[in-house]
Amino acid sequence: MSLKKKKKTNTRSKRDLIIDAATEMFLEAPFAVVSVDLIAKRAGVSKATIYAHFGSKVDLFEEVINRRAATFWQVPEVPDHADETAQYLRQIGTFFVDQLTRKETLGIFRQVIGSATSFPDLAGVFYRAGPARGIAIFEQRFAELGQKGFLNIENPRLTAEMFMSMLKGGFHMRCLLDMKNDPIGPELVIEETVRVMMASYGP
């Protein structure tokens, strides 16, 4: 292997180490407490190396969110047949709830909520990379369902936000608060959301 190729490999692996370490630490402690020095120590690199890859701690947090979002928003494609619409809504609803209630996702939500006042840039970074991206993807899916005539949709953006909001409801808040023995579990939330969507938007 040439020196040039070896250097690229080392640089890439250090970047990954930094992101992995930052992800762990952002889930363990408040944003204000997680310093670049601590991330460098966890990653086994120098502080200068971190700044060579990321301009600031907020930039590093943004990369953590972007990596998470890359897998979070792999929403299934719209089906080919109208009689599959309810099952499709159930499928993407289950997908969304599963992703939303993962330990890592809840940890990031808590991090942003707890740090938004002191670090306002953090909230914007999170919203653009996370919720805004998801709304745009769901908007595309509902627009396609409308174009195919599977659902009667006048405003795909509004429909997407309504769908996602129903799935979150009080259930997501209770997950964020780590409340046990929830009387309304995800299955009930998903089924009721699908029922309401089909009753409201069905052809």
Question: What are the defining features of this structure?
Answer:
203 residues, mainly alpha, Arc Repressor Mutant, subunit A, Tetracycline Repressor, domain 2, 2 domains, 10 helices, elongated
How would you explain this protein's 3D organization?
By secondary structure, this protein is an all-alpha fold. The protein folds into 2 domains: 14-55, Homeodomain-like (Arc Repressor Mutant, subunit A); 68-201, Tetracycline Repressor, domain 2 (Orthogonal Bundle). The protein has 10 helices and no strands. Helix 5 (85-100) packs across helix 9 (156-176), helix 5 runs antiparallel to helix 10 and helix 7 (120-129) packs parallel to helix 8.
Say which CATH homologous superfamily of the largest domain is assigned: Tetracycline Repressor, domain 2
Query: How much of the polypeptide forms β-strand, as a percent range?
Result: under 5%
Structural class: mainly alpha
CATH class of the largest domain reads Mainly Alpha
Helical content class: over 70%
What is the tally of beta strands? 0
